[in-house]
């Protein structure tokens, strides 16, 4: 019975909102009705305020519901106090002094419901999508049958798909929770919930499982199963995405190493510092833009990429010409000398830029996230994955389709024969090392977006990078790609049940064991190249 | 006759080295305990500890030189064995604290009480007994090296691959020991030691005694290493370093030779770590830092690898430099100096200080002899 009365009240309200001439009445006329001190007039006043469109309407109705709305018939004033106790004039919405003899406007239970429904409806129909979404979610949680009519109206008028979905879920939740409606309607509601619902819908279904029986219970059980299955699938997809994201970072860090170590056979312990140099170039470019052309700040990354390539590449060429060329054929010495270079570079950066982290902000197109098949995907990560693949393909093209790439491969396969064919092997060595270092610099641009730009940036990637290259098989770019994504995904798969640190340890141990089994990596080079 | 053979066994520079260490062992206690503090010949206790630390590093360097200088295995994970030995000793020292900890628990070390643990984990049992702890100091690093080497050498992981996975090994251990629930004090490690064998660790007498023991251990290690490299076994190690495949074709089981020397070297490193901890008074996971292991490599390179004496000399020289650099206004330049040293030594001084000294002696017709090019191991 109560429900029918509420429906009637809502119907009146909705009619008042959309059809009645009261629409033109304005907030003043509606407020006048509060002064009459009669429940019927108050109800009309609620309707009037609700559809007046006045900016203070929500505050007025909330105050009314919480006994903070006062009438002062003598001066025809209506006032409300906010939670802090400040008084406002309901007609203007501005703070005002309230006469001492103003009285609280009384409500009965029925009117209280009308106020709640009106509030729900107002927020459900708010022009602000965020407010609408919040209102829909709160209805879903309260499952207040009084809101049903308002929800139905809102569904019909809702322009945005994702909010309509929440509204429909809320509607289904109301129908399911309502023991008064026919069982077939409730089963239908379960089906609708199971189709789109997430954790909250799952909670609701589990809660409803207790007091039900028969076909409804069967439907709920089925619905729970469907949601759980979807959630498992989504969790797996999320893990894979995180793994791909981590894998792309690993690939980015390792890909330059795949050139210097993989193709040239030079152990470059200063590789991480090339990444660091790239990150600091990004920082400098951003600072320069911030000071000279702040409106073009979004261009910092596109400018930084070629610059980082050049700077890191030049440093690489300098290292090759100055140190590494004396050490060809002595890999262990190369390792030590480049480690020394890495210490010097780190300390140089620390001296110039200080030991603390430098702030590199994300450009607008890299911030934010979107939802895809129920997965939260941040633009930053997506760009890094795309960027990594572009760099990888670019490198492949350089190696396979340019004269320089051809000469590089010739020199690495047979240095003396290449020299006999007229290739300037020393020049090619320097260029190869410069290319690998430059790519590391580019990686630094991307990593500056997700990691701290500090003198230690390179250190944190060097061991992982070596692992990736060794795992993939030295001298094989595709191996590096497969290894990076395998390690990334394996890391993320292990993380939930082993913890981040233990997962990493496990991966390292597994890698050590793997190298025992296949000392030359996943995709080992065959033939004479194996025997150095 | 025996003396003559002994001298020949040591070579000239070995004799000089032994004499130096023996002189230190004799003179430092005298200059510390008997010479009054005002005298210019007095050695302050802080200096004794510092020298003791250098001698521990020298032991580690000799162990490293055995595998790298003589067998060509560039291990970037020897810091892990050093730290494991240190942890074993640290566990003994922790158990000696007894009820004198902050929480006063009779059995559990403070950090376990803090973590709300109720009983001692199984791997902590027995560490209240010194002989057991001493056994573990040698056994744990040795066992790890044995398993690691067994897997690596059997499948012929060589050269830089071995270097990289040994680095991964110490990195994995670093991460593991940082975890609180490993039961080794996590981030803070083991510290606040009170007694060793009933003597207070902080006391001057104990510190001098520890220094003397370290010096004697260094002499013992050197003699052992010298015995190894002059034996037939040592010759095979050098053969493996210079031409592994050829040695294998001749009929030697290369992997066993490598395994023995690698395990032995890890045990030496563990012993060095165990002597290091009571003198320094703390062991924490940062000892597993991969950079520590690489620094140890540079000691050997600076001194001259494949010479044993050079390795020990390099450890002392580089660490003395480090002390000078990091305790003054030069501190920001230490990494420049260390990095420069790496580059300089590999490019300009491939045979290290001992090699340089040998060259100088040879030019002026001196009796000393530097390592030959083959000895220094020009091949990778």
What do these coordinates show?
The complex is a heterodimer of chains A (532) and B (380). Chain A is mainly α and 532 residues long. Chain A folds into two domains: 2-206, no CATH class; 237-526, ABC transporter involved in vitamin B12 uptake, BtuC, CATH 1.10.3470. Chain A is 69% helix and 4% strand. Chain A is built from 21 helices and six strands. In chain A, strands 3-2-1-4 form a four-stranded antiparallel sheet. In chain A, strands 5-6 form a two-stranded antiparallel ribbon. In chain A, helix 11 (214-263) packs parallel to helix 15 (379-401). The longest helix of chain A is centred in the middle third of the chain and has 50 residues, at 214-263. Chain A is elongated, with a radius of gyration of 34 Å. Chain A starts with a helix and ends in a 15-residue tail after the last helix. Residues 14-24 and 527-532 of chain A have low confidence and may be disordered. Chain B is mostly helical. Chain B has one domain. Helix content of chain B is 69%, strand content 2%. Chain B has helices at 2-34, 45-68, 78-97, 110-114, 130-154, 159-178, 204-230, 232-242, 244-250, 254-280, 290-303, 309-326, 334-348, 352-363, 373-376; strands spanning 190-191, 195-196, 199-200, 282-283. Chain B has a two-stranded antiparallel sheet. Chain B has a two-stranded antiparallel sheet with strand order 2-3. Chains A and B meet through helix 14, helix 19 and helix 21 of A and helix 5, helix 6, helix 11 and helix 13 of B.
